[in-house]
Design goal:
The complex is a heterodimer of chains A (137) and B (397). Chain A contains 3 helices and 10 strands, in the order E-E-E-H-E-E-E-H-E-H-E-E-E. Chain A is of the alpha/beta class. The model of chain A has no long low-confidence stretch (mean pLDDT 91). In chain B, strands 13-12-11-14-15 form a 5-stranded parallel sheet, with helices on both faces. Chain B has a 4-stranded parallel sheet with strand order 4-3-2-5. A 4-stranded parallel sheet of chain B has the order 9-8-7-10. In chain B, helix 7 crosses helix 9 and helix 10 crosses helix 12. The radius of gyration of chain B is 21 Å and the shape is globular. The chains are: A alpha/beta (137), B alpha/beta (397).
Chain lengths: 137, 397
Amino acid sequence: MRGGSNKMKLQGRKIYKGTVEAEAIVTKDGISFYGGVDPDTGKVVEVGHELEGQSITGKVLVFPTGKGSTVGSYTMYRMKKNNTAPVAIVNKEIDTIIAVGCIISEIPCVDKIDINNIKTGQQLIVNGSEGTVDITS
Amino acid sequence: MRLEQEEKDMLEGKYGKAAQKSMEILNALGEIFDAESMIAVHGVQIAGVSYANLGEAGLEYLNEMAEDGKVRVLTTLNPAGMDRENWQELGIDKEFAKNQNRAIDAFAKMGIITTCSCTPYLIGNVPHYGQHIAWAESSAVCYSNSVIGARTNREGGPSALASALTGKTPNYGYHLEKNRHGQVLVKINAPVKGSDEFGVLGKIIGDKLVELGKKIPYITGIPSATVEELKSFCASVATYGGTALFHMEDITPEYNKYPKPSDLVFEIDQNDLDIARAELIDEDIEIDFVSIGCPHASIHEIAKLANLLKGKKVKKEFWITTARPTKKIADEAGYSKIIEDAGAKFAADTCCVVAPIKGRFKGIMVDSAKACYYGRAKNKFKVKIGSVEECVEEAIK
């Protein structure tokens, strides 16, 4: 399922610097990196999660907000070192765990984005320094 | 965020890589939560110490920070995954012990006092009323905010470490008076006594706060409470409700500083306490493990245990989890010998929440509602709550 051509520039808030271009994977569910994601495979393992069984590696992970234990920040760091991490994160409303996880793992991150505008499979340019998300396909 | 010169210098790397990364974290949190500036903190408590939670990645992060990071304020650690001296006796494997020590060494290199306890306020990391601190460990956060009247947000492992390495935290949340008002009036219409019952009360209030979407209860109807009872209550209300601050009429220091909430009220009767207690007792539980000390046992609790265990023999695995300095007082007072002669074991530096004991036991009896929550969720034990006396009775039966 491709999102079609609705090119758009979304302005949010910068959380962590850096610019990347990659494909989006979008969920309406919160993400708990501690226990909810397998840091070795990059797959979501939370039972009943919208993305259960899907890989978030190398994608722009788009979700409303983080949840769960603060150890999740360390899990993100571990994924970055394992090369299983998403290349950027876009949130509706950031929480402390995800924010700290992005900073220590150096993953570009933007929040205050209306994530309903983004569909899985669309190509995005995330600019963490400007706080923008460009939908390019 | 408006940064002072020293804070800007840290952000630009003039104080080294660890201070730079730390200031990046704190600055970003400040921006996210609309803080106007940083404030100095007087002490730090760090969570994320057990290797079972950190993993190799967490350890790698700590080692990176330890390359040039040094703490600027008094900093202590949460419980580790094992007793640092007595781990073999307690059934911890060698590989885990090696990794746990690598983590503790990294903290030590940064100048952190490696006493591992969830009750820093019992062993010398203790703020005074109104002081700003940056503490992780939800039960200690709740205790310091509520019982002491110090000010901290609920920090996670990395943000607490960042405050330790910079001496700063962004000024938002519970650091500001405007966010410390009671939101819900809770009337207690039954006597509440003992650590276990205060834990049961914490569960009721915590569950109710989640349902109401509120954080700060103002509690009336408790005529008196011991430090140990409040310690247990803090752990429970933080576990079940995510509560970082409560006010208790005539007991906590800020209870009359802010208006008493009146528009949102709920009452707790004996029946509610009975129902909640029953929820913390699993049916057909087969108890093979008894543990006291969640949060870490105080010297007063250990004295009481020594009295209960004197001349007895426990027939089940029995752990007393406590801070090592408290254990040393117990050694000097002669309590440790009485307790160990009865066959119970001290597990200092660790606790039954963070030790890697999943699957080792079938059923655990505790005097702590927090230990019930993690016993079930993390370690897949069946659980039973009871008073300290009941726990000892069960162990010697």
